[in-house]
From TrEMBL:
Assigned protein family: Belongs to the small heat shock protein (HSP20) family.
InterPro entries: A-crystallin/Hsp20_dom, HSP20-like_chaperone, Small_HSP
Protein name (record): Hsp20/alpha crystallin family protein
Record-annotated SHSP domain positions: 26-139
Superkingdom per UniProt: Bacteria
CDD domains attached to this UniProt entry: ACD_sHsps-like
Amino acid sequence: MDLMTWNPLREIDVLLSRAGLGPLRSMDNEGWMPMVDVRETDAAYVVSAELPGIAKEDIKVVVDNGVLTLQGERHRDEEEKNEKYYRRERSFGRFSRSFSLPESVAADEITAKYREGIMEIRLPKTERQSAHRTEVPIE
């Protein structure tokens, strides 16, 4: 199973951020990437992504040619002209995460639920061939 492509720079950025040292590259210019867990059950693969502070309308889930793409945007809060920031750690902007799906996924049966800042995408397993392109509705 190959649900995620490993990106060593992403892993280094995550480690540096957790240590309070900041990312190697500017997230403001390149957007940001939500943290994602991928797990497998007997019946499905499940992708869970942390997307706090994002409206459901700003998120899109698409399956195209065996690739699941989760994309969207977190909008920056309006800044008050009289406020001074001493520290600003939250990331804003567009994001996109893509995952190669195994052939055993039923693309036309994928479901997505968004609750309390967590997107859960359920990818049911099947023996038949999957659809070419599907936009997944988000509940």
